[in-house]
Specification:
There is one protein chain. The chain has a seven-stranded mixed sheet, with helices on both faces. The radius of gyration is 17 Å and the shape is globular. About 40% of the residues lie in helices and about 20% in strands. It has helices at about 1-5, 25-35, 60-80, 100-115, 130-140, 185-195, 210-220, and strands spanning about 15-20, 40-50, 85-90, 120, 150-155, 175-180, 225-235. It is built from seven helices and seven strands; from the N terminus they run αβαβαβαβαββααβ. It has one domain (about 1-235): LmbE-like (Rossmann fold, 3-Layer(aba) Sandwich), CATH 3.40.50.10320. By secondary structure, it is α/β, with parallel strands linked by helices.
Length: about 240
């Protein structure tokens, strides 16, 4: 009985804290779809808008692009079966110019609202600065104080950011958790297609072919047909 209790997975709601709309699909879309099928409520929080650093167009067109990106996100998350989607729309690729405390408090409010037992977010080693800031903010918001809701803290990889870190870096991505997404990979690919402006042509890492290849490779390293891989930040049983 003791062994059975130790191996039992954690139930409860899930919060995915992503820097930008599309990171949730790239990082853990297959896992989100699987958890949703299993009856867990998955809530998505986007911290930055994902668009404002790119555009040099008039304000009206900028606003339209922001609206379009958020609409794509809602459609993608609906495909995955998410329970809710919220975007703070802080400035894209400029989170290092926002007080960290502000971002921490945003995440804390969502933790208090949804009381998740599991939180997914970025790993620290990503090249993208927003990913790093969100990682640090989640760590602060999920401090393991007595009675805290979060029992699992899990870090995902993002194609075109995580693997672009140089190989000899001490912050390289070394997965310790693999989730079988054999039955939900097709849902992940359908969801990423909802982001009409974010996919690239192969051999870019953010192409459909590369995304599927990564899932196949992560699966093969764990004896599975397809998987998403993660680093376990903390797990309390």
């Amino acid at each position: 009985m003791e062994k059975e209790n130790c191996e039992k997975s954690i139930d409860g709601s899930v919060l995915v804290v992503a820097a930008h709309p599309d990171d949730e699909v790239l990082g853990c879309g297959g896992t989100i779809a699987r958890m949703s099928r299993e009856g867990r409520k998955v809530h998505i929080l986007f911290v930055a808008d994902g668009e404002s650093s790119r555009s040099t167009e008039s304000n009206g067109k900028n606003i339209q692009k922001l609206d379009d990106r958020l609409s794509d996100a809602k459609r993608a998350c609906q495909i995955l079966g998410c329970a809710s989607v919220h975007s703070e729309q802080l400035p894209d690729n400029r989170l290092d110019g926002v007080e960290l405390l502000r971002i921490v408090q945003i995440i804390e409010r969502h933790i208090e609202r949804y009381k998740p037992s599991t939180v997914f977010t970025h790993c620290f080693g990503d090249v993208n600065v927003d990913h790093k800031i969100v990682h640090e903010a989640v760590l602060a918001a999920c401090r393991p104080q007595p009675g805290h809701y979060v029992k699992e803290l899990i870090f995902f990889e993002i194609p075109s950011s995580t693997e672009w870190r140089v190989a000899n870096s001490s912050t390289g991505f070394s997965p310790s958790l693999f989730v079988d997404i054999t039955e939900t990979l097709s849902i992940k690919l359908k969801a990423i297609k909802a982001y009409t402006t974010e996919l690239r042509h192969f051999p870019h890492p953010r192409s459909l072919k590369a995304i599927e290849a990564l899932a196949t490779w992560r699966g093969a390293t764990a004896g599975l047909s397809a998987a998403e891989s993660f680093v376990i930040g903390r797990k309390i049983l």
